[in-house]
């Protein structure tokens, strides 16, 4: 359905309440029942919205998702609420009181900004998307702080706002877009818009090459629960050219200190797996220094040390065995140690974890658990066995 208006009527809202939580297997029966009293298109739209709300719970939480309105792209591309709240808090700490949210989507970031007490102009050129953003501001009681405008962001005057936030579209007809200049609008336009504002934050893909980061920006990579979610280019702050990795919940932030690459050393008693945001930010050296360690291989982001350290930026494992890559030897060792739970991690290996798990532990038996790291050590394919420290 290309119009949210019918769902915003009393009849539409009543239908949304009626279909809340409907399981996929029950949709046909529910639709048949409801179509006796309501237009078929409205019933289909309500059921479609219910499915989108169920998908949105992971990003927005049940309380908000069950009140909000979504488009398929909106669910897919929206910022996770915890990440948006962190970013809004950072803008608030800079003294920002008003933000022009360009390419606002269904309003996830605008909601977080408004909840931080920031006045928002939310702009999107797609009529349905803008309608969803407007409906969400109203549904969450934030319409007084969020002004939604359907317009081309390149034609919006942002001069009266303390900050600009730009979240360009990074998906096209063929999926994800990796070239920042192929974003919509292009990164170069977003940078020019950022440089005209006192403060700015540009959301970009976490895989953005470091050489594509403008010299005027600080680059921040953000993970949530161990999953890398995005990178943000900050303008107008005190650290142009800087990098940082931020881990949520927390937040815990690791700033770059310009350290040289860690030395390669022999595998010690402990292996440290840096958080993905740390790796993306090229801050493995900072973790290595913190845990008194070095790399297992010059090209692999695994840190090894003889000492056990607690770090929020890396997960520590105690290594019990180091073997050349050999599935038969691994299978025999797992059988000997009565391993029933096998976790496989890889970095620098072409072997798929599920394939190795199936071959090495075809019939899981036994009470013990082992983690296997498929990697390279000094250039050689290697299996490191251990468990969380």
Give a verbal description of the structure.
- The protein is α/β, with parallel strands linked by helices.
- Helix content is 31%, strand content 27%.
- The N and C termini lie far apart (52 Å).
- β17 and β18 form a beta hairpin.
- The strands form three sheets. The chain has a nine-stranded mixed β-sheet, with helices on both faces. Strands 13-14-12-15-18-17-16 form a seven-stranded mixed β-sheet. Strands 5-6 form a two-stranded antiparallel ribbon.
What is the overall pLDDT average?
93
Please count the helical segments.
13
From the alpha-carbon coordinates, what is the Rg to the nearest angstrom? 25 Å
How far is it from the N-terminal to the C-terminal residue, by CA? 52 Å
Helix content: 25-40%
Oligomer: single chain
Low-pLDDT parts are none
Strand order of the largest sheet: 3-2-1-4-7-9-8-10-11
Summing up helix and strand content along with how strands pair, one would put the structural category as alpha/beta
Q: What's the main sheet like?
A: 9 strands, mixed
How many DSSP-defined strands? 18
Provide the β-strand percentage band: 25-35%
What would the principal axes of the Cα set say about the shape? flat
